[in-house]
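Researcher: I need the complex structure. Ligand is calcium ion. Inputs:
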Amino acid sequence: MSKKSGPLVRRLLHPAFPAVIFLVFLAMAAGLRYGLIQQYTGQIQANLENEARSMANSMEREFMVHADSIRRMASRLQKNPQMSEREWREDARNYLVDFRIYQAIEWIDSDLIIRWLEPLEANENVLGFNTAFNQNRRSALESAKQSGNYDISGVLDLRQGGKGIVIYAPVGTGLDNSGFIAGVFRMETLAQQLLASREPAMFRIALHSKGALVHTLSDFEGASAPMSHTVPVSPPSLEWQITVEPSPAWVNKQRSPWPRWTFITLLFMGLLTSLTTLMLQIIFKRNQVLLATRQELDEEITQRKTIQQDLERLESTDILTGLANRRFFMEDLAHALTIAERMTRQVALVMLDLDRFQMLNDSMGHQFGDELLVQVSGRLNQLSNERILVAYSGGDEFMICQQYVEDIDDVIYLLGRIKQCFGAPYVVQGEAHSVTATLGVAVYPQSGQDADTLLRNSDIALYRAKEQGRNTYQFYTEGMQEREVLRLELEKDLSQALANNEFVLHYQPQLNLDNGEITSVEALIRWQHPRRGLLAPGEFIPLAEESGRITDIGQWVVMAACQQLAAWKGTRFENLRVAVNLSGRELDDENLVERIRKALETEGIPADRLEVELTEEIFIQNIEHNLGQLSRLHDLGVHLAIDDFGVGYSSLAYLRDFPVDLLKIDRSFITNVTERHDDAVITRAVINLAHNLGLRVVAEGVETQAQLDFLKNHRCNMAQGYLISRPVSAADLEQALGSGVPETLTLTEPDL
Ligand code: C2E
Ligand code: CA
Ligand code: CA
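Model: Output:
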């Protein structure tokens, strides 16, 4: 994953985080619960205190009420000392009914003996009982007699059984005292009375008198809750305390449910929060994993796309030039044609071939060739736009497609722009080279309905343009197709020509300007075609070079020339030198020198009677090999001539290295040598150059006397051209030369 999670996010995603949340909630819940319990426990304590106080109060009140009622009985008896026992008992019964808590009401005489008693049942055994049964009691009662205040016994073991309390009210004070009225009540009854107003099974009450436990009242079984409250109870003449202990049930009833609910609620919330967090964590982590996977996937897709694009680009692009390749170009062309058909527009296909590229490539090396191709591609590619596609077809060929052509001027304009690409020289490996190109153009729909036809026809047009001398362009025309057919036919016929002995050599004399004699002739091949008549070498030599048949033809030429020389033996033509033309392809043949040697030997011809003409290109192509071949040839004694001198390669360095005997100034300089100053300058310069190098010079294509005079004036060694003679058959030559050696022969060659 490229995105790194921050430290906070990482902490939030820690597996312990939900547990921490839960623990925090747990602590909060426990704290709150503790606080609430504390608060409610205080509340309960206060409630208990209230209960205890109200119990003490009601106890006091009870005592006062009973004490008062007993005292009232006592004062009634005092006022009515004659009261009969029956009367008194009636009075007592009323009290019993009114108060209900008494075990018994008694009258005790001044001797402190119980005399009267109501009710009798369950109390008979106390009649006649002396209440001053111990010193303590006696002194308490005596002091009550004296003071007239009532006395409360404290908790006693009653004679009737059980525990109880007795309230004594004196009847009369001091000497007037005639005993006490006493009210006896049981502790149980008292307790019931006290607890009657309260819920049952709630309290345990411990009664202390002067610090000592005297009685325990309880309305529930089992242990009490661990809390209690003690309050003083102060009926007159008593020092009591009651300690109230609640039952667990009471405490529970007092207890609020809130601490528990708060605890549970908070705990639940904690659980919920931590679970939610856990879930969010899981979801988030899942999401992160998903995101990571997604990103990886995206990256892979991008990578694949790039690879795909690279592949497509590689498949459609030429690696060296970076231009579209042939395959892509053809697909695009086919597509362009379907569009053109719909829109009824034209499409132009331009086939471009660099002139003399092979020569440059061979002489300067592949590295040079590649660099030149790249530079040419660069300039051509500047033409490309949405209408124009430039592609590299291979070798030294380029293809250019122009779409949406409205009329032929569009194409002419494009051709002009292509030509501009070759206007400035190319600087390759630090040297400037002028490069030209030849173009063949085919236009849809007139020159072809489909891509393949257009391609073939542009190729034919290119071929024609090359034939016309390169650095030009040619549109495909209907006639070309026919000529193409002818060309193919011719090629087929060419394969039979040697076997059928259809070649002949014509000879063109070369006039020696020093002595006005014909000392040499150039052998020029013709093809006696069975149907088309005599064909010039221009019509079949290129074909023969392409197909490689030139080697055999060349061998035939050398052989035929030697045979002719042999035939002239013993005649006046015995001393003529014969020049034969060799094309570059022939030099590739390792057996060339040996074959020439054999031919000379076979016919018994001295080697210096044979001359070999080679164009400049040969001297700068495949230098090492060719130098070897030509040196061996020269060593044989064969003369070497440079043909078409001045039109080819610009460097003259080869003149220094090769064993050359003769320079043949190209016809193109001679044609206008008398009219054009620069041609005259060049011609003069070549003559001087040759002479300074110790070479002889021949001027080709001499057609006028003025040209001949110019050459003579500038000490050119020889002249060749129609002015002297056209190339003619050996027989015609013999005839012409037989009639003496004139200044100019006027032989004419049968029409080619
Ligand atoms: P090239 O070697 O430059 O031969 C001279 C060409 O110029 C010949 O054309 C010749 O007829 C022509 N010519 C000579 N004098 C004049 C003139 O005064 N005016 C004009 N306009 N033309 C003149 P041709 O015979 O058609 O030969 C053409 C080319 O074919 C030759 O050019 C040569 O390169 C090649 N060729 C001829 N024979 C052979 C051959 O046996 N082997 C090879 N490899 N190439 C040959
Ligand atoms: Ca020649
Ligand atoms: Ca020539």
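Model: Summary of the prediction. The two ends are 83 Å apart (CA to CA).
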